[in-house]
Amino acid sequence: MALSKVSRKPGSEKAWHWLTIFLLFFFAAIMFIPFLWLLTSSFKTQNQIFQYPPSWIPNPFQPGNYVRALTYKPFALYFRNSMIIATLNVIAVVFTASFCAYGFARVRFKGREFWFGVVMATLFLPYTILIVPNFLIFTRLGWVNTFLPLTVPLFFGGGAFNIFLLRQFFRTIPEELADAARIDGCTEFGIYWRIFLPLAKPALITVGIFTFLAAWNDLLGPIIYLRSPDKFTVAAGLASFRSQTDISWDLQLAAATAMTVPVILLFFFTQRYFIKGIVMSGLKG
Q1: Counting C-beta atoms within 10 Å of the first and last residue's C-beta, which end of the chain has fewer, N or C?
Q2: Which of 93, 126, 133, 155 lies closest to 141, judged by CA?
Q3: What is the pTM of this model?
Q4: CB neighbours of 50 closer than 8 A, spacing ≥ 6?
Q5: Which of 202, 191, 118 is nearest to 160 (CA)?
Q6: Are 174 and 106 a contacting pair, CB within 8 Å?
Q7: pLDDT at 2
Q8: What is the pLDDT of residues 84-137, one digit of tens each?
Q9: Whole-angstrom Cα distance, residue 222 to residue 236?
Q10: Where are the domains of the chain?
Q11: What's the pLDDT tens digit per position in 27-41?
C-alpha cells in the first residue's frame, strides 16, 4: 500500500526558514559586538576609550596606535615565537592524534574499547591539576625557559578530544577500502598513510585549527615556563602591558586586534574543510 504523503504548508515552512535565519543573524551580531568594540577602540585615544557616553566612531581616528603598539614591545619577535609553537603543535597533534585514532577505529586488539574509554576519561581532568607535576618534571629536565614544555607533550597522543574527533571520522570511511588494500599487500601503516589520511583531510584540518587556536591563545603555559622576554609569545606579550604602572589601553587594544588577524585569516581560508570535518565526524555512532 502506498504511503500517503504528509501535507505540508509552504507558508509555514518559509516562515520558520526566515525565523531561523533571523535568529542566527541576531545571535551572531551579539557575539560580534565585543570584537567590533575592540576594533573601533583600537583606533581611539586613551581618553576616548573611557568617555561617557561611549562612542563607536573614533574621533580623532588614530591608525598610528598599531605602529606604536607593535614597536612599544617587540611584537614581531612575539609573533614569530607564537607561530613556531603553534606550527609545531599542529604538526604534532595532526600526526599523533590521527595515529592513535586509527588504532582505536580500525585496529582490532584486546581491550580496545576499554582503553579508548580511559583516554576519553582524561577529558574530565582539568589542566590546572597537572600544572605543578608538569612544572616539576620539566624543571628537572631543564626545559624551563624553552619552548619544549609547550610543544613536546603534544607529540604523545595529541589530546583525547582530537583522538575522538578523528576516530569518529575514520569510522565513516568504508572498510572495503582497507580490505582491498590488504589484498593488494598494503601494510596497516600503508593503509593509514595512503588511504585514511588523504580521505580525512577535512577532519585533520579541523583538528589543526583547534590546535592552532589553543596554542596561539595560550597564556598560562607561556607565563609558567617562559622567563626571558625574548621567548614570550603574543599572549604573554599582551599580558606584559599590564605589568606596567601606567597601562596604555589604546596600545593594548591595538595589539590585541593585531593578534586576532592570523586566526581570522586561518578560519577564512579553511572554513569549508572545518565545517565538513565537524559534520562528517558526527555521522558515525
Answers
A1: N
A2: 133
A3: 0.83
A4: 249
A5: 118
A6: no
A7: 47
A8: 999 999 999 999 999 999 999 988 889 899 999 999 999 888 888 889 999 999
A9: 6
A10: 74-281
A11: 988 988 888 888 888
Residue 207 CA neighbour count, 13 Å, CB half = 32
Q: What DSSP assignment string belongs to the chain?
A: -PPPPPP--HHHHHHHHHHHHHHHHHHHHHHHHHHHHHHHHTTS-HHHHT-SS--SS-SS--THHHHHHHHHTTHHHHHHHHHHHHHHHHHHHHHHHHHHHHHHHH---TTHHHHHHHHHHGGGS-GGGGHHHHHHHHHHHT-TTSSHHHHGGGGSS--HHHHHHHHHHHTTS-HHHHHHHHHTT--HHHHIIIIIHHHTHHHHHHHHHHHHHHHHH--HHHHHH--SGGG--HHHHHHGGGGSSS--HHHHHHHHHHHHHHHHHHHHHHHHHHHHHHHHHTS--
Q: Which CATH architecture has domain 74-281?
A: Orthogonal Bundle (1.10)
Q: d(Cα 114, Cα 210) in Å, to the nearest integer?
A: 26
Task: Give the Cα separation of 15 and 257 in Å (integer).
Answer: 38
Is 90 exceeded by the pLDDT of residue 82? yes
